[in-house]
Write a structure and sequence with these properties.
The complex is a heterodimer.
Chain A (H helix, E strand, L loop, with lengths): L1 H12 L5 E6 L8 E5 L21 H5 L6 E5 L1 H12 L8 E6 L7 H6 L5 E7 L2 E6 L2 E6 L6 H4 L11 E3 L12 H8 L2 H12 L7 H5 L25 H15 L8 H5 L7 H15 L33
Parallel strand pairs in A: 1-3, 3-4, 4-8
Antiparallel strand pairs in A: 1-2, 5-6, 6-7
Chain B lengths: L1 E5 L3 H11 L1 E8 L2 E6 L25 E10 L2 E6 L7 E6 L1 H14 L6 H9 E6 L24 E5 L3 E6 L2 H8 L5 E2 L2 H20 L15 H5 L3 H5 L8 H5 L6 E7 L3 E8 L19 H19 L11 H5 L6 H12 L2
Parallel strand pairs in B: 2-6, 6-7, 7-8
Antiparallel strand pairs in B: 1-9, 1-10, 2-3, 4-5, 4-12, 8-9, 11-12
The chains are: A alpha/beta, B alpha+beta.
Chain lengths: 320, 345
């Protein structure tokens, strides 16, 4: 971490960049927050640890409008979102300086709570295991048990864009990314409906999934306004619970990099990434494999027409 | 008088209460625990300390109709939404959430009384649930809440094998009188209960956020706090979502909207969030135009404006849901601590 701070200080000092986007340490080791740093002194609060799951790419939209370059520390998966936003002309690549940071998977306190570890005071990352100091004694668990879902289905540890890379990464993939989607596909439509009904009925319409999503970056969201009748801040009916998420999934189709931020931030633990992954899986099947954000030039299958594109009817049916 | 029940008999207790009134309690569904209506099939979860959503929406639902206007053949009919008439019991309300109801009472039971809220308060009996194992995000003591003696119409304590029950109000006593499965306690029970309370309070002493520094947060400090340059730094990670406001047991702002029914409108209200860009939108536009202003509003309301108008009562209860749920790791504790650091410089 010290190496990251020194490098950022040097780039600020020599005028290469005007500010630094990273994570700031707070009063607990497990609560770093995304932050902009504008001086070497401020950078003393910089932190990079196993709790830095937040994808910083979206903050670069805001900083693209500012004077000078912004140095951003991006994890391998964050670089996909960055590329996608460059492709959509939301980030000006010329106003960024990217340092790729190593990643061995990110963990959350929420996972620790789910493992029954309560009253957490400190978390020590000892490689493969975590030692957790709690009000109720010391506990430990395998590192991977506390990892975010997305890290178990990691896209790879290669930074898709970077001016330089600092730090080592470790492969964390131990599950098939589409396993749950396949399981859902094999359900009857009734079972599948029951699954999503149970999950989406927890939705409180806080919009955290939308606001954190790098590709949900419309200046004015259709759901924020009075333009159509179902624009609400609450789910008045079972229909509305689903409508918001389905519209969002379709809107980001072909642009979603599967960064998993929607599921990370949902206060009700709804596995929202499953909707996106179903669309990604179908697109892969219909148009050939495509990974949004892999680069800044490949045209998304949903915005490109080729003579051999599959007919719309092909997607109909499902497993009744 | 404290009474007791063996822990194994809890399902019988739920069934007995449900005979008397609709019973709401913490239920685990799709991996998350929230308050829900009990039936014999529900998976009751008393092990999770805090429900993801507070019990606030049993009294102030996230969305509720107010009245309907119907226009047919030249006649306009306006029908008011009926008020709650059924008695209900909320079992398992933590001390912090109960204080949250006190805060809502100040808002909705003051003149002009909110009749929808008042009807629910009248028909609802609250069974408060003492905490045994407070967690790192808790800071109720900062706001004077004793989680080991939470109050309510009835208070319950749950130990390894026993539920202790004590009615505190006539409403709580009326419910107790209709239950015949509660047993008598003896001196040993009283001692065990006292020991449980002591243990819980000792945990509270050791919580990282047990005693936050509230100097400077009150109605007199409005100008200085409002103008502080700290807000510009504090708000930056905010995503402008409403997770904190919707999880919060005291946030009480709502929006009123019309739903077009084809022959008229149904007017309803739903929770609003001061984090949202169209919050308090008026014909001339919006009086808060930046996220910094919106972010500042939330904390100024809880820690300055509300106490200024309510005899010093803060509208934060220290439940810590914002600590647990903010996607960007922001919360009221960080705000309080930032101002503390500034004051002690």
């Amino acid at each position: 971490m010290q190496e990251l701070i020194e490098r950022a200080k040097a780039l600020l000092a020599d005028g290469t960049v005007s500010r630094v986007l990273g994570w700031r340490a707070t009063d607990t080791p497990f609560g770093p927050e995304p932050a902009f740093f504008e001086s070497g002194e401020e950078l003393n609060e910089f932190v990079y640890n196993c709790f830095c799951g937040a994808n910083l790419s979206k903050y670069l939209i805001e900083s693209s409008a500012l004077e000078g370059k912004t140095l951003a520390f991006l994890k391998p998966c964050d670089t996909y979102s960055f590329n996608q936003l460059c492709k959509e002309h939301r980030i000006d690549r010329g106003k960024t300086y990217i340092i790729g940071v190593g990643c061995k998977g990110k963990i959350t306190v929420e996972r620790l709570h789910e493992l029954g570890i309560k009253g957490i005071l400190d978390v020590e990352d000892a490689g493969d295991t975590l030692t957790v100091k709690t009000l109720y004694g010391e506990k430990s668990c395998p590192y991977s048990d506390a990892m975010l879902e997305r890290c178990h289905a990691c896209k790879g540890k290669e930074h898709r864009v970077a001016d330089e890379v600092i730090g080592e990464s470790a492969d964390t993939t131990d599950t098939d990314r589409f396993a749950k989607v396949t399981e859902l596909e094999q359900m009857t439509s009734k079972e599948r409906y029951a699954f999503f009904q149970a999950e989406l009925s927890k939705c409180i319409r806080c919009n955290a999934c939308r606001n954190v999503c790098p590709v949900c970056n419309c200046r004015k969201c259709v759901f924020d306004g009075n333009a159509f009748d179902s624009v609400q801040k609450a789910n008045a009916t079972e229909f509305e619970e689903k409508m918001f998420h389905i519209i969002r999934a379709f809107h980001v189709a072909g642009r979603c990099t599967d960064c998993g931020e929607c599921s990370r931030v949902c206060p009700q633990g709804i596995p929202l990434h499953l909707l996106n992954r179903k669309l990604i899986k179908d697109m892969d099947a219909f148009y050939g494999e495509y990974q949004a954000g892999e680069d800044t030039s490949t045209v998304s299958p949903l915005t490109a027409y080729t003579e051999h594109d599959i007919e719309p009817e092909a997607g109909k049916g499902g497993n009744e | 008088m404290t009474q007791r029940l063996s822990r194994e008999e809890l399902p019988r207790l739920y069934a007995a209460i449900a005979q008397v009134a609709d019973l709401f309690l913490p239920v685990k569904r799709a991996g998350k625990t929230n308050f829900a209506l009990w039936n014999t099939q529900t998976e009751v979860d008393l092990d999770t300390l805090k429900t993801a959503k507070s019990p606030k929406d049993l009294f102030f639902p996230q969305c509720e109709p107010l009245y309907t206007c119907d226009w047919r053949e030249g006649n306009l009919t306006v029908t008011a939404q009926a008020l709650a008439e059924r008695d209900f019991v909320v079992f398992g309300v933590r001390g912090c959430d109960l204080r949250g109801l006190d805060v809502l009472d100040r808002v909705f039971l003051s003149d002009p009384v909110d009749s929808f809220y008042a009807a629910r308060r009248e028909h609802g009996t609250v069974i408060a649930f003492a905490c045994r194992e407070p967690e790192e995000s808790c800071f109720c003591r900062t706001f004077g809440v004793d989680c080991a003696e939470p109050g309510g119409d009835v208070t319950v304590w749950l130990t390894d094998g026993t539920l202790y029950w004590r009615a505190n109000t006539p409403k709580g006593q009326a419910l107790t009188d209709r239950l015949d499965l509660l047993g008598k306690t003896d001196d040993a029970d009283e001692q065990r209960l006292a020991a449980e309370q002591t243990a819980a309070r000792e945990i509270i002493d050791r919580l990282p956020y047990a005693n936050l520094f509230l100097d400077g947060w009150n109605g007199d400090a409005t100008e200085a706090r409002f103008a502080s340059p700290l807000w510009e730094k504090l708000y930056r990670p905010c995503l402008a979502c409403g997770a904190c406001t919707f999880a919060c047991p005291t946030c009480q702002c709502y929006d009123i909207r019309d739903y077009d029914t084809g022959n008229g409108v149904q007017r309803f209200r739903c929770w609003d969030s001061c984090m949202y860009s169209d919050f308090t939108m008026m014909a001339h536009g919006n009086n808060r135009t930046s996220q910094m202003q919106r972010f500042r509003q939330r904390f100024m309301h809880k820690l300055v404006y509300f106490p200024a108008n309510n005899d010093g009562m803060y509208s934060c209860v220290g439940c810590g849901r914002c600590v647990e749920q903010c996607p960007s790791g922001l919360n009221i504790v960080k705000v309080i601590k930032a101002f503390e650091k500034e004051a002690k410089k």
